[in-house]
Prior knowledge:
Layout (H helix, E strand, L loop, with lengths): L4 H4 L6 E9 L8 H22 L5 H13 L20 E7 L4 E8 L5 H11 L4 E3 H9 L15 H15 L14 E6 L5 E7 L20 E3 L3 E7 L1 H6 L2 H12 L3 H16 L3 E7 L4 E2 L6 E7 L5 E6 L4
Parallel strand pairs: 3-4
Antiparallel strand pairs: 1-5, 1-11, 2-3, 2-6, 5-6, 7-8, 8-9, 9-10, 11-12
Amino acid sequence: MSLSPAQTRDTPLTALVIHGGAGVVERALLSAQDERDIRYELNRALDAGNAVLSIGGHAIDAVQAAILVLEDSPRFNAGKGAAFTARGGHELDAAIMDGHRRRAGAVAGVTTVRHPIRLARAVMEHSAHVMLAGDGAEQFADTRGDLERVPNSWFDTDVRRRQLEAAQAAESAGALPAMAGGYFGTVGAVALDASGRIAAGTSTGGMTNKRHGRIGDSPIIGAGTWADDRCGVSGTGWGEFYIRHAVAHDIAARIAYRGDTLAAAASEVIDRVIPAAGGDGGAIALDRDGNIAMPFNTPGMYRGWIRPDGSRGVAVFKGDS
């Protein structure tokens, strides 16, 4: 069996990249305190994932650890702080993928599982399936003793409720449903571990004011989430476009079949393909050499990274580094 570049170096590489969603976030509308809080939460997620990688842990454990922090933060549209549906509740989606063994698990439309990313991993590791949805996913959660359940109202936040009220008021006034930017806050992580394994995961509450039963790209393997032995990708954006263009897999395919660099592949899909189709959003990507890409075509994307040399950072707006 051939070894990846990360496995043949004297010093094993590890790297981690996360996102907290891409969308319309204007610098003038984000208070200094809000920005500090968001950066703090992103750093907490980086710390959690890196704690796994620094002791030789598996990339998939690092991805889960980082996403758990973000799911519990009301600052993001995943877990606590998830967007409201048109019916006034929350329907959560998540996916996780182990690129080394090409295994994946996903859940869609769950309503009582505190950490959808844990349930997605349980589907991968403890079922014969890749995706479970709605009542079926909830019933599967009942078979697991390690998945915390909460009332649907646990996910409520005042900010998300105001967003729902504004969206529904606009609809009542005759405006078309506002989809672009309505998904802001989806979370994701991609990790490379010391053994050269790559994993990716994504978790979301979906779009504000979405129809009951709507499923976006986040839990769809190849659309919002992908990992193989060359790279991993987690997307955040207008999900219908990410599904139609198989965004996460398209980025990986350009590397595998055309020999594109990670940066070129990610930029081409996010900065050209999606806007040309009428969508928007961003993605994070990481390859087996530890290269990181974080393209987005919106005013901002919450993001954080730890590179193989140990350098790290978090950012919110375009031009942040």
